[in-house]
Amino acid sequence: MATAETPLSFPVLPLSTESTGNRCSRSPEPMSIDPFATVSGTREEILAATYRALCDHGYADLTLSVIGDELEKSQSLIYHHYDGKDELVLSCLEYMLDYLESTLDETVDDPRETLEQTIERVCTPVDSDPEQSVRRVFIELRAQAAHDAAYREHFTRSDRVFRDWLQSVIEAGIDSGTFVDCESGRVAEVLCVTLQGIFFRRTTVTTTAWLPETSDELVATLEHTLYAPESA
User: Fold this and answer.
1) Which of 61, 80, 89, 180 falls 20 to 30 Å from 139 in CA-CA distance?
2) Model pTM score
3) Residue 169: which residues within 8 A CB-CB, separation 6 or more?
């Protein structure tokens, strides 16, 4: 069974778990997180089953029956709570994004390392089938936004969360003197689009030789445009 490295709606944000509990902080160390590690109630059990079914079967082959096979309770509960596959998938995505937002802390200890670890995470070739499977599912779901307003609304929100996170890291760097003064929102937007583009390409092509050079060039660009001279 596949285990997602991050929630499907937000696949490139690095998170780490504090030793005091389940709360995640903005940190340069990526980790595997499962928003359904602990579930409470029928609704969360259904969403967890949806998450597992998506990871294992992908969007195209997903049906309510397949989700029901993952549920340890009667499949009739799914039909009682949800009218169709897309309503259930969107509820699952929203739940995971809500979870992610709730775990984000405001502290950024090392803004430069945080950005560079994020770039490294996105530019590191996938070396496991489960992880690649999760990435393919994300692409499948994202594609639904081209013709489905509900998916488009979700991914608009998801992108905003990622962009805002990047902006908060940049602003922390400006405040600490690690980064030069700049329009943090514009820089975050460019980084968001660039990292997502890298993610989509690495998930949908067979070659990975371009990834290290892309990572190096992106970091070099930050050194010339964002990093303060004494930290570059």
Assistant:
1) 80
2) 0.82
3) 26, 108, 111, 114, 115
